[in-house]
Every structure is written in C-alpha cells, then in structure tokens.
Specification:
Elements (H helix, E strand, L loop, with lengths): L2 H13 L5 H21 L3 E4 L9 E5 L6 H18 L2 H21 L4 E4 L2 E4 L7 H20 L5 H20 L7 H23 L4
Antiparallel strand pairs: 1-2, 3-4
The protein binds zinc ion.
Length: about 210
C-alpha cells in the first residue's frame, strides 16, 4: 500500500493538529522506509514477480523485522518510548499508532505474505487480487482524508498540491508498463519517493515568509 498510509497520516493530522504532518508521514511509512533500507543492506528480501497486476510485481519474500505484526509492534513501542522521552505522552501515542497502522492497512491488500511473528504465520486479505478495486479504494481513501483535513485548514492550496501529487504518483505506478526492476532499484526509488513526500508535507506547513 502506498497512498493509503498517507491518507491515515492526514486523518491523524486532522485530529492532532499540533503534530507536524511530515512527522506523521514518516510514522505511517516507517515500516516501509526501514524495509527498503534493510533490503539495501541485505537484511530483508523482496523480489520481482512477472505479473500483469502491478500490485503483485514485488513479492516481499523475507521481511520478518519490519512487516511482521510482532516487528511492527516493537517498532511502534520504540517510537512511543522515544517521543515520550522527547516530547509528551500524547505525541508518543499518536506517532506509535501511526507506525502500527502500517501493518493493519497493509494486511488488507497484501496477499498472505505478512507474517505475524518473524517469518511465520503469514496473513493477508489479498485485495490486491482485484487491482482496479484496490487502486480505486486507496485513491478514494486518500481523497476522503484530504477533504476531511482541508475543511477549515489555512494552507489549503499546498495541501491540494500534496494530495494531487500523491494521486499522480500512484497513478503512474499503477499504469506504468511492466518492467523487471532489481530489488535495489525498487528500494532506492521508493526511499526517494518517500523522502519527496515527507519534504512536501513539511512545505505544506511552512509559514509563508
Ligand atoms: Zn508496507
């Protein structure tokens, strides 16, 4: 899942306005950020799978630390402790919920490749088997969250740019022609994309000079 995670971040922003959007974006996507770093380091493994369905072209083969429910919960716990120390219990709770949301949103769409504990007991409801429905549902979730956040927001134009660019990027991924990509290339380009949207979220909230 890609933009659905950010949609959840937008909803958190609406409810907990004092927390920066870029930080919420890092939280909801932290599992994938770490997964791709682990792939580059050779700790976790993804591989290319030839398929006409764009969602099934990347198989997460061995992701026990980031994409197991247990690993995700540990990560959320670490984020909680860090922000409890750095900031407040409220920030810690919200960011930890953001981190933990990743697994539960992923499990809706993934085929049964999401482990509960390290590399075992893999689950996934497999909405990705219906690519058009998955794509439409994720975009709808993003737009809905965007509209909820935008109501009464002062920086409305920038948020519209952010949501539009998310839709464009996701459309690009979905409609891109099938091409075999090396795991390192997928990891590196995904990390670049996540950095871009984090920067954009920061820009959305920067006060105009
Ligand atoms: Zn993920």
């Amino acid at each position: 899942m890609f933009v659905g995670h950010y949609a959840f971040g937008l909803l958190l922003k609406k409810k907990f306005n004092e927390i920066s959007l870029w930080l919420l974006f890092v939280a909801v996507q932290l599992v994938d950020i770490l997964a791709f770093i682990f792939v580059l380091l050779g700790i976790e493994r993804i591989r290319y799978n030839p398929s006409p369905n764009p969602f099934l072209r990347t198989i997460i083969e061995y992701v026990p630390f980031t994409h197991s429910l247990f690993g995700n919960a540990i990560l959320a716990g670490m984020v909680f402790l860090l922000f409890w120390k750095l900031n407040s219990r409220r920030w810690a709770s919200v960011l930890a919920i953001g981190v933990l949301s990743h697994w539960f949103l992923d499990v809706l769409v993934h085929t049964p490749d999401m482990p509960l504990f390290f590399d075992s007991y893999k689950v996934g409801l497999g909405l990705w088997h219906l690519p058009i429905l998955s794509f439409a549902a994720e975009i709808a979730f993003l737009l809905l969250a965007g509209i909820i956040l935008l109501k009464g927001s002062p920086q409305i134009n920038r948020y519209i740019v952010l949501v539009t660019l998310l839709v464009v990027a996701y459309g690009g991924m979905f409609f891109a022609p099938e091409a075999e990509a090396k795991a390192a290339v997928v990891a590196f380009s995904s990390l670049t994309i996540y950095s871009f949207y984090t920067a954009l979220a920061y820009w959305c909230e920067r006060r105009k000079a």
